[in-house]
Amino acid sequence: MLMIHNSKKLVERCINFSNLCADITNKTSFESMLFSAKYTFVVAIVLTLVSSSLLVVADSSSLSSDSLKRKTAIQSVGVFPLPSRLEFAGEAVPLEDAEIRERLEREIIQNAYKHSATILILKREKRWRQLITRILKEQDVPEDFFYLAVAESELDEYAQSPVGALGFWQFIRNTANKYGLEVSDQVDMRRDPIASTYAACRYFKEAYRKFSNWTLVAASYNRGIAGIENALKAQKVSSFYDLYLNRETYRYVMRILALKLIMENPSEYGFNISESDKYPPYLTKQVQIDTTINDLPQFALERGITYKILKIYNPWLNSSDYRLVVPKGKSYTISLPVDVKEPEAR
Q1: Predicted pLDDT of residue 138
Q2: Are 156 and 272 in contact (CB under 8 A)?
Q3: Is the pLDDT of residue 233 over 70?
Q4: Residues β-bridged to residue 160
Q5: CATH architecture of the domain with range 87-277
Q6: Is the pLDDT of residue 20 over 90?
Q7: Spans of all domains in the chain
Q8: How many helices (H) and strands (E) in the chain?
Q9: What are phi and psi of 318, to 5 degrees?
Q10: What would the DSSP string read from start to end of 196-232?
Q11: Is the dihedral of CA 264, 270, 272, 277 positive or negative?
Q12: Helix then strand then coil, % of the chain, to nearest 5
């Protein structure tokens, strides 16, 4: 209020000064007119500056005390120290190799300063980590393969590559079919976090039977089993870290390692994400569907939810006509919010 009162006084003085200029102008001399014009222009500038100051003060005063009290850490720009020791799936990364250290550092820098994408990964982690690592552990696949899913899709179940790979694990259609995922006009199980994780585990175990090394398994997820096998034979080595590969695969495993480091210690890399900032897991229950649903929006409404909620909980539903056709002898598992009640039988 004091600022506004003082500003009013300043405006009044500017107006009085302008009137003085007008009196001088009445002398009709050219010099007096020029004098008046110059000082009228000065008055206009002063008034503009005063108005701008008032707007800034008003805008600042509208900030809530919570916003002002919230601690915001400013990320400093620089390089990050590399760990003295690092493993992937229980296998040591040879950080004593300067070339390996340089490749790892590149991926750390690129992902640590890829702010929006990495923040979203950290926010999504709470929603999906437990679900994915539970399946990995159940299938005897090391939990570090969770970071492979992060590298593939940034934990976005709707992620789609330019070549048509979909979902957390970025299966292309033919590979999805090979590992047991249905892809049709009605259903695309590549977008089902549970089904696609089981399919990825089938691939990992098949590759491990070939290589007996989890790091090579991870590399093969990008280049293919045959591609890694041929490279090992041609270059006469047995370790991923001794291979010279195409640029994409060369960086792929290092990106997985960099994301593991960042996600295990986000604050060390400038990310200040509290638990309350993270997206909560979906609390679900499963319903078996063994007959065709001709109207999915109506199916949802009968259970007290919308079609939008049904799709969010079941991103694998893929029909454009709002139907789910269930062939005889087949069934699908639909996820629903845990508090949804099934309608009474008619």
Answers
A1: 98
A2: no
A3: yes
A4: 166
A5: Orthogonal Bundle (1.10)
A6: no
A7: 2-61, 87-277, 284-337
A8: 13, 4
A9: -130, 5
A10: HHHHHHHHHHHHHHHHS-HHHHHHHHHH-HHHHHHHH
A11: negative
A12: 60, 5, 35
Helix crossing, 247-264 with 98-112: angle to 10°? 70
Cα-to-chain-centroid distance, residue 34: 62
| E strand map for 74-158 | 87-88, 91-92
Q: What whole-number distance in Å separates Cα of residue 343 and Cα of residue 302?
A: 6
Q: Are 335 and 193 in contact (CB under 8 A)?
A: no
Q: Which token pair is 162?
A: 């330019």
| pTM of the predicted structure, to 2 decimals | 0.78
Task: Give pLDDT, residue 77.
Answer: 78
What does the pLDDT read at residue 73? 56
Summarised one tens digit per residue, pLDDT across range 153-193 is 999 999 999 999 999 999 999 999 999 999 999 999 999 99
Query: Both tokens of residue 266?
Result: 């986000």
**Residue 201, pLDDT score:** 98
Looking at the chain, the whole-number percentage of residues with pLDDT higher than 90 is: 74
Distance separating alpha carbons of residues 30 and 166, to the nearest angstrom: 78
